[in-house]
## 1
Amino acid sequence: MDSKVKRTQKNVVKANTKPKELLTLHFGNAGINIGESFWKQQCIENGIDYEGVFHGEGNISHQGEPIPTYFNELNGGLYEPRSIFIDTDYSTIDTLSSFEMKSLFNPNSFIKGKEECMTFARGSYTIGKSLEESINNTISQKLESLTNFDGVMIFSSLAGGVGSGLMSNIVKKWKNNYSNNLSLGIHLLPSKDLMGEACEVYNAVLALGE
Ligand SMILES: Nc1nc2c(ncn2[C@@H]2O[C@H](COP(=O)(O)OP(=O)(O)O)[C@@H](O)[C@H]2O)c(=O)[nH]1
Ligand SMILES: [Mg+2]
């Protein structure tokens, strides 16, 4: 078979494979900051602007439509990131949700508290704990309408209280409730060059232990 024909057949198989759907979770300052860059890149690759409008010129656009891996299509034809941003204080989330990308995200994608938590223990047992029910309910709600859900991508710094303690609790629950689905962690580790608080190393060790 000549190589041109082979290539065409491969493309047909690819086009008929239904794309998988993923949910992203962004925990704490670092997870949210990485999330901002991540979603900017997804908008470029899928050809979606910050109002959620598809322009058809994305690098990976698929038969004239964005691949639904990361975006939900809304009734009016707009697209919305399938993501949840979580922090026990409001400053980083408020920064993300007030500027250029504010119209892109559904307001229910933001779960925030009022108090920063520096340690694994506060993220896991006290300040972070109070957000857990709302996070788990929002996860279930975001998965309700999906038909080909594959798994979750989790972004955080293991050095932070939210990114270690609260994140570990949610992942534990995830593994119980959605044991057939993937979970992929993308985590920063503490660095001696950037380290702010002595507890950062302990936070990371405790989170890795989980
Ligand atoms: N590389 C990088 N590190 C960050 C960023 N934001 C916070 N950090 C680092 O992450 C560590 C603490 O985690 P942070 O995300 O602030 O804590 P959390 O909000 O409690 O999860 C500190 O060492 C910060 O310097 C970021 O945007 N980039
Ligand atoms: Mg923080």
## 2
Amino acid sequence: MVSERHAIADRIDREHKDIRRSIGQLELNILQRFSEKTFPDWRLTMILDMRDFQSQLLKHFDVEEEGGFLQSVLSALPHAEYQVHALRDEHQEMIMRLNRILDKLRSMQAPSAEIQQELHQDLHGLLRELIQHEEQEHILLQETFYRDIGGPA
Ligand SMILES: [Fe+2]
Ligand SMILES: [Fe+2]
């Protein structure tokens, strides 16, 4: 049982690292310079990369919500119920935020340094929210899974 639970904790930790890497890469790509000629390629690549990231996030949220992590937190830490609900709400909120970024990107029909800068700021805002979200999860993860084996809470 303990090892099963740790498999979930390990998976979530690993996915958090992967997500940070992806968003770091998106931030770099979104700042890439483009000319009139290279703009369509840049735009399409960004749309596809954002789609991949959206799918990566949705799957990660499914793992957390359906894979036993949040349920284990609730059973181990009943006082964290409000926090767990807030984390679920944040999942939805972050996906909507990402959809808005994708919409903005799709509506960018011509090269615009201004919109490019906005997109970068939007993405950076999402990154900050994600980092805070995952830090909270990391704390809950420690408290939930390390208690069982008598390790540090
Ligand atoms: Fe989460
Ligand atoms: Fe997470």
